[in-house]
From TrEMBL:
Residues in Fe/B12 periplasmic-binding domain copies: 20-274
GO biological process, one term: cellular response to iron ion
Superkingdom of the source species: Bacteria
Signal sequence region: 1-17
Cited PROSITE patterns: FE_B12_PBP
Pfam (any one): Peripla_BP_2
Species name: Halobacteriovorax marinus
Keywords assigned: Signal
InterPro entries: ABC_Transporter_SBP, ABC_transptr_periplasmic_BD, Vit_B12_bind_prot
Protein's UniProt name: Fe/B12 periplasmic-binding domain-containing protein
Length: 278
């Protein structure tokens, strides 16, 4: 870990100019894209999908399954990766004598810090400041209409026999938890010991959420309706109403430059569910 931190310090304080960048994490790739570094990025993760033109670049695997031969063939002079990348992968890259530049992207603070650091490292400080200002403005404008509602933020759920069987949800130390806090919404899994715990049906039944958010990569009417009915069945025994609010879009899964849009979308849907329903 100390070695990784030292590497980041050396590269962030140097005057080196990187011309052939490989990015192994979609959210970090999108930051590079928004900062105007598209032409300098030569390799991306196989999960890159936010832009057809950008993500059409050579695929180099993923952060946990790198294709080293491809990276060498691209003549990369910098590898952008997650600070959580395994030590073995980092050692393998160091053996190839390719500069490794790690970034954290778990929390909202991590995202903002990564944008600032990328701006400095890749000589895009002006663009980084503009992006940070935009995100801050999006959070400021996100309407905090409903305060202190208890929320369960679902990343994905499983249905068996028309009933919710289990769900992966956002816990503590996640950018989702930070976004909810900014909007004055209470994540009922904020005290979880894991970032994305899996909750079985029994634990879900005991939850005291006022709102269930569930995110999807795209809109699918039949799938959404099936999920809505299954979640309503789960809480049908309660003498209070639990609102189910689906959210759509690939950007919802990425702790990147569109975190402000995630906040705006959550705020908009909460407004529609409560204020307009009155």
């Amino acid at each position: 870990m100390k070695k990784t931190i030292l590497l980041l310090f050396l590269f962030s304080s140097s005057a080196l100019s990187y011309e052939r960048i490989v990015s192994t994490v979609p959210s970090l790739s999108e930051i590079l894209f928004v900062l105007g570094l598209e032409k300098k990025v030569v390799g991306v993760s196989r999960f890159c999908s936010f832009s057809k033109s950008f993500c059409n670049k050579t695929k180099v695997g993923t952060a946990i399954d790198l294709e080293y031969e491809k990276i060498v063939s691209l003549k990369a002079d910098a590898i952008v990766l997650s600070a959580g990348t395994s030590k073995s992968s980092i050692k393998n890259l160091e053996k190839l004598k390719i500069p490794v530049i790690p970034f954290r992207h778990n929390s909202l603070y991590d995202v903002m810090t990564s944008i600032k650091d990328m701006g400095r490292i890749f000589s895009k400080e002006k663009e980084a400041k503009i992006l940070i200002k935009k995100i801050n403005s999006q959070f400021k404008n996100a309407k905090k209409i409903i305060k202190n509602k208890k929320v369960l933020f679902v990343i994905g759920s499983i249905i068996k026999d028309s009933k919710i069987s289990n769900a992966h949800v956002a816990g503590s130390h996640t950018f989702y938890n930070d976004i909810l806090n900014e909007l004055n919404l209470q994540n009922i899994q904020s005290d979880s010991t894991t970032a994305y715990p899996q909750l079985g049906r029994e634990r879900l039944l005991m939850s005291k959420a006022d709102i269930i958010f569930e995110i999807f990569g795209s809109f699918n009417k039949d799938k959404i309706e099936q999920k809505r009915k299954s979640w309503h069945e789960l809480f049908s025994h309660l003498n209070r109403k639990v609102k189910y609010i689906p959210l759509y879009g690939d950007f919802l899964f990425l702790p990147g430059p569109r975190v402000g849009e995630i906040a705006s979308e959550i705020s908009k849907k909460v407004s529609e569910a409560y204020v307009k329903a009155q």
